[in-house]
Amino acid sequence: MFLTTSLSVFCVCLATAMAKPQAVTCGSAIKLMNNAHKIRLHSHDVKYGSGSGQQSVTGTTGKEDVNSHWTIKGPEDKSYCKRGEPIECGQKIRLEHLTTHRNLHSHHFSSPLTNSQEVSAFGDGGSGDSGDVWAVMCEGDYWVRDDNMQLKHVDTGAFLAASGQTFGRPINGQMEIIGSTRPDGSTKWRTQEGVYVHPNTDFDPKRKYGSHDEL
Fold first, then answer.
1. d(CA 190, CA 206)
2. Phi, psi (5° rounding) for residue 51?
3. pLDDT tens, N- to C-terminus, the chain (215 residues)
4. Could you count the other beta carbons within 10 Å of the beta carbon of residue 18?
5. Whole-prediction pTM
């Protein structure tokens, strides 16, 4: 009787643990897909020909492109989040482009196709300015994988969005990414492929990033 009861409790606990939604964590390198247009947030070492002239941020339909990975880190160089720590709804973060080490950024420059607010990749070696900080807007306590979420730019209040307009050469077919003042379907994103760091992993940022003590 005792053995049967113990096994039943164990099975219930295991099923609960397996069914628990997985939170997105600090230090994870993720891809984000736009709900309305089914494109992944993307960047590359191609500068805008107008506006700020900074590194362009676009949307691509390709699933395998390494240039669509973004690393989640804290809002400032001296205010890092612990690797493996679940990201809370409302938390301020930065997203660092994995291959160019520039941060997802926005500011009051006009975007090239729709004259909306420009979104770019900015900084050097992962260090930029306050225009790199975004607030995670989601329902519940934590940002959960595969759930809808929005990124609200802290400096300007704009939401990360896809405009629906596509570029010609040299980034033919890629979609314009903008800051939108109105939250709608084009401002909703979901996590896709990525390398997700499990919670409760000890992390020494100086050991991994040398002089940079942030994620």
1. 30
2. 60, -130
3. 444 444 443 343 433 334 356 999 999 999 999 999 999 999 999 999 999 999 999 999 999 999 999 999 999 877 778 999 999 999 999 999 999 999 999 999 999 999 999 999 999 999 999 999 999 999 999 999 999 999 999 999 999 999 999 999 888 899 999 999 999 999 999 999 999 998 764 434 333 433 333 45
4. 7
5. 0.84
Q: Is the distance from CB of 214 to CB of 80 less than 8 angstroms? A: yes
Longest dimension (CA), the chain: 75
Token pair of 198 as six digits: 């499990």
Three-class SS of the chain: CHHHHHHHHHHHHHHHHHHCCCECECCCEEEEEECCCCCEEEEEEEECCCCCCCEEEEEECCCCCHHHCEEEECCECCECCCCCCECECCCEEEEEECCCCCEEEEEEEECCCCCCEEEEEECECCECCHHHCEEEECCCCECECCCCEEEEECCCCCEEEEEEEECCCCCCCCEEEEEECCCCHHHCEEEEEEECCCCCCCCCHHHHHCCCCCC
| Vertex 158: Cα angle to 37 and 166 (nearest 5) | 35
Residue with tokens 């770019």: 120
How big is the chain by its Cα radius of gyration, in Å?
19
| CB neighbourhood size of 14 (10 A) | 10
